[in-house]
Amino acid sequence: MSEISRAIDALLEARLRQLPAVERESARWKTLGERLDELDTALTDLRLHTTLDPDLAASLTVPQLPEMRAGVAEAADSFRTIASRFTRTTVNLGVSGAARMGKSTLLQSVSGLDDQQIPTGDGIPVTAVRSRIFHSPTVRRAELEMHSPESFLTEVIAPLHTALALATPPRSLTDFAAWNYPKPTEDTRRRMLFARLRDLQSALPSYEHLLTGGVTSVPLEEIRPYVAYPTSEEVEAAGPGGVRRLYAAVREARIECPFPHEHVARIGIVDLPGLGEVTADAEQRHVDGLRNEVDAVLVVKRSSETSSFIDETDTAGMALLDRVRGYVRSTGEFTYVVHNVDPDKPHLAEALRGQLLHSLNDGEADRFFTVFEADVRDPEQVGREVLTPLLTRLADGLPVMDAEVLSGTRGRAAAVRDRIRLHLTDVRRVLDQVGRRAGVPEEVNDAKADQLRSGVAKRLRVLVAELAAEANHSADPGFVQAVESAYQGVLDWIDDGFGRGAQTWQELALTRMITEGHPADFAGPEFNRIRVEISRRFAALDDFFTERITDAWDRAAAAVAAECGALFSEQAGSEEADEKAGGRAVLSRLAELFEDSPQPCPGLAAAVHNLLDVRLEYRTLLYPRVRPDLAPLNLQVTHPDTGEEMQHVAVPLTEEGAKELYGIFNGLAEQAAFRIQKSLLREAAVPAAVVHALLEQFEDTLIRSGTSAQEFRRFVRSYRNDLWPEEFRGIDEANSRFARVVRVTKEIAALTEREDIAEREEEEL
Amino acid sequence: MTDAHRPVFEYKIGLLAPSRVGKSTLIASLLKEGQQLLNRETSVQLTADRPTLNRINATHNMVTGALKARVFEPGLVPSTPDPSYFRLLLEPRGQDLPIRFDILDYPGAWLEKGGNSDQNEQKWNECETFLSDSSVLIVPVDSVLLMDAGDTHAHLLTAHLAVSQIEQVVQRWAKNRRERPGEPAMVIFCPVKCETYLSDSGSLQDHSAQLRQQLCDQFSEVLETIREAAPHASVRYLPIDTFGCVELVSARWTPHADSPGGVMLMPKYRVRPPGTITRKGLDDLVSLLCRQLVEAARLQSQRTAAVRRVTAEFSRRHAEAQEGFFRDLWLKVNGERRRRIEAADGDEARYRDAEQTTRSLFDVLATLAERANGARLQHLS
């Protein structure tokens, strides 16, 4: 491994080491954005509080919040971009240049690929698709990311429409196929763009099937039609049917192949399509895509009879590269010029050399931009004159550029952060004013809390007593009814020939028995089906259980809500239509309030959660009891005393036999259903007992746990304005809405503080 | 020896059950199977008089015929309209020692309601007298009622089982028995239609313990009455299959005007293939009854023998007594001495006869005892 390779490896590893810090910052900015959103809702909540002074309420706003939010989002985005820059496992070189400058030839010389893969053309643009080429010592393959119909329309067709100032671009492929493009105009550029649209339109059938939006792998030998425009020979050869334009469906190509140079192990080259060649809009999109994807750019420049000078296209191209550069300050470390020298025409090379010296570097060689000179057709020369000096420079220059990117991003983020801190101070000042307006003596608060607790206790006591009375009945009438109705359902189903009709059942049985020569082949599966169905039908008891538990929630919720003043009045009012959801909704809200209380009430929250977490289910509660009753519904049954295996479906293979079999099945199924019903009714007291125990437990933990009295006081401190708005006008620090705003501002302050610390740490490092 | 001196063994067997439990069916199968069993396995034979035989056969045919057709519905055997006495003879083969016993069948509704009209009340009084005089009381109990009445109708169970009516009759019987401690006293509780709950006749579930527990719970007052009023009476528990090959499918309480609570438990059965009748428990009942009756006869014969031995000894002493020379001469002259000796010889022969009967009955009992009891027969007290 050469020294340069080692340097590049070390450089990439150094980048990876910085990654965690960058990711932390990215996450921190994301959190900050979320907190700002929360601050917005919390402030709105507080403003809406009925007892708040209207003037104060009006000043409880942060007018610049949207701008701050945008700034934070941008910072988070920038850090994310840097993170992806630091995650890269290669140093990526962009190769740029206007058409006909030898860009493709340079790519060939670097990658070792030939005309079949990277086409070069004399005079016409040939590279149709942006591709990235990576060195791989063993693999030769190309992965093509295909357009979806949508991305094809927005990224390929729409920019052309915009450039031609045409009406809204086509919305579907059908639209596009049917679009009527006018005849060529005088304007060369417009004529060229129109021609391109019409080419794409007429060739649509050749590539429409490739618009999958997926990734496909293609052998390198077959890649040409996917990345290059067809040659004029190909166009002519295709005749009136039109040439295939597979490249139109390709969004990007990723090629892996062994590069013929040393010290290129971790190099990737990104082919930037000829700058200035496409429309301005497309260029911009292109540049945005490249931002932070390339670590340096090579601009290829060739002298020719017609264009040996730096012209406007070059200037525009260089300006565009500035955007790619981002926060990299040292342009000279990022952009390099490759002077493509034709050894046969030294006078032209000389002219360009002079131009470059004066226009780019102000008369001093390599002052702003480093210029490499090489005949790009010669790989050996490219390696020696371009790659080696370039990588040597980058080994030193890249860490500098990375640092510039990072500090540039941080600088911009710091500005955002300062603005947030400034506005936060304003919010705090208003909060202070709000807080000072009210104040309730502790004794009053405690008295109210004790009153609330004993009120809830009384109501729950009554409820638990009612439930105890219900549980003391030997049978829950609702349960008995539910069992009876499920039982009747099963009987009806059995009566209906097990859901098939008695006649059909017997015919089916006879057919199967005769076909198989034995009743068992029919009876076995039929027993299974009947067992499953009977079980399923009794599982309908779950409806009853749901009703019971919902009823318990409703009653518990009503008991609590009745004591909670105005806290649930609005919820109760709005949910009258759907009373079933009511109890659960009220209890869930209650648990939330306990949890969100600025003064914690974990015991009370747990009590409510335990009540809500309970499931009453046939499957778990009763199934084990009835399972043995289904045992006789099997082809083989075991005698309980002797352990003897018995079959009870020995019938003759005749119509009579089928009838007899039907009788046997009927008797067994009905018997099983009867026994299940009986077993279930024996458990009739269970549901009521469970509900009773549940509510008793709820009452116990809510009212009589060690921390209950204390937590009720905290709860009242936090929510007294919401509980009894008439009694507690004004607002104070203990109010939950107020507390929420305070909490969020504190969190935001902490996030911005921590940023400072992190930055200082970085700088010290 | 004249007929007047022949020992007469006569016993009564009473059945105590409300209507529809299956008294008639039980009697019919008891005698039908009893005959076969005894003929097959012992030296004792059971015979019935002609009217009894006819009634037994009629009931038996109705039940077995229905079962063969795979239709089995409760209520197929019509309710008994009048009391009828089944008269039977139990005879040890080759010996002239007939044991006569009567079984009374009567409309179960009478037990529930104490006769319905004046005329019936008179007849029911006769039945009650017969029942209280019985040596053995059989109490058939509907197993389905015990096991499948369900919690919702549990409060009607005592009424449907006619527990208090049974207790009343048992009370009178027990007093009667206490007054005759030398006579046999036995009550047999027989859960019938029990084949669904016992695994020994082909059912896939074994609920025998629950069945016994249920019976003891429901009839606890009756058991208590027996223990108090006739402590020497033996109480047995013996579940009896009605057919052996049928199984309860379901039981539903359906409206029924005459029944307690206005409802009746309607069972539905299925015939378990191949539908062969095997009545477990019945053979045990037959041998239990036979042993009880033979034992009773033996005790009675033993008592007779004891009395006759005393008489014979007195007669002998009287015949051979020395009353002085002239008196003795006079007795000889007028033939009185000869008459006395003849009387003493006759008394001794009767005594030996009774001894012989006792010995014979003991032998019969010994053969009957050779047959082992089934697992179903249990003591209840």
Structural overview:
- Chain A: This is Dynamin family protein.
- Chain A: It comes from Streptomyces aurantiogriseus.
- Chain B: InterPro entries: P-loop_NTPase.
- The complex is a heterodimer of chains A (765) and B (381).
- With 765 residues, chain A is α/β, with parallel strands linked by helices.
- Helix content of chain A is 62%, strand content 8%.
- In chain A, helix 17 (477-495) packs antiparallel against helix 26 and helix 23 runs antiparallel to helix 27 (686-704).
- Chain B is of the alpha/beta class.
- Chain B has two domains: 3-298, P-loop containing nucleotide triphosphate hydrolases (Rossmann fold); 303-371.
- Chain B has helices at residues 23-41, 50-68, 108-113, 118-133, 143-148, 157-161, 163-179, 208-218, 220-229, 282-320, 325-333, 336-370, and strands spanning 9-15, 44-48, 84-92, 99-105, 136-142, 186-192, 234-237, 246-255, 263-271, 378-379.
- Chain B has an eight-stranded mixed beta sheet, sandwiched between helices.
- In chain B, a hairpin with a 6-residue loop joins strand 3 and strand 4.
Which characteristics define this entry?
heterodimer; A: 765 residues; alpha/beta; Rossmann fold; nine-stranded mixed sheet; two-stranded antiparallel sheet; 11 strands; 62% helix; B: 381 residues; 2 domains; eight-stranded mixed sheet; two-stranded antiparallel ribbon; 12 helices; P-loop_NTPase (chain B); Dynamin family protein (chain A); P-loop_NTPase (chain A)
